[in-house]
Amino acid sequence: MSVFSSLYHASPPGVAVEITSAQVSAAAVDWRGGRPVVATHAAEALAEGALVPSLTAANVHDRSAVMRIVTAVLEQVGRPRRIGLILPDLVSKVSLVRFEQVPARAADLDQLVRWQVRKAAPFAIEDAQVSYAPGLKAPDGQEFIVSLAKRSVIEEYEGLCADAGAHAGLVDISTFSVINAVLASGTVSPMTDWLLVHMAADCASIAILRGPHVIFFRNRTAETEGTLADLVHQTAMYYEDRLKGGGFSRVVLAGGAGQHTYDRGIGIAGVSDIEHVRRKLQERLGETSTKIESVDVTASATLADRISVSGAMGDTLAPLVGLLLRDSVTAASRGSAA
In the chain, N or C: fewer CB atoms in 10 Å? Predict the structure, then answer.
């Protein structure tokens, strides 16, 4: 079982590309001696307003400008013909649903999931790309984590890559890929709860996981009232009151890779501001709680000799590495469930 909920299910390619409103980045992973190695990477900034992530509206506003950057990044990582594609969280609506009984036939389960999420969909379910993966199994039923995206929006991003010569055989959102990067490190206990706070260019996402399973997910845009610290505090209260949580074994802060990262009320956070964000979150969680750590991509994959990891580079590489290591995460999760 895996927390990974890809919009299209496929074996991972050797190159991952992430497209955000701030930049386009890519990384290639080789396997050497049974160990994943980040062999090459690239990142180029996008002009402000060229791409604006949205769940319902067109995302690409200056196609020629975005195409130029996508092409340049792909050129730097060897012109791959097949890639994994990572999209902003804002293009997908994520839900957790629980069924007391799970249909035996895949077609029946698919129909049941689509029926369950159609009421919350901001567009016709016929226009949606719906993907789901099994989550936590509880005494009162089986949970699924469901991703809902507008098909035309996904096709915008796929079209950019196709016109640059790369087929997106696997598509997912950024926070799910960061989760996989943490899980791929092998440092997550299957029996403990942990919190991920992921800061992106336009929003903040929070996920609570029980081992490898997502049990809570929330995404809020820059326009939503309240600060990131408030959101973390509210989430912690919900975790204690409604999810009957016993405390987080770890708290992970991801994002803040530089360009226009949104910190929800503290301001637009560049790399120099991340420690300020960390302090604010620690205050909300309580000084005696688990200390906030950063994603350590080197715990999941070795870096080639010429690659050095600063805070910004680690944040850029984390979702890319996470997507490329999805199979190892899936296998580990199955092993822990056996």
Answer: C
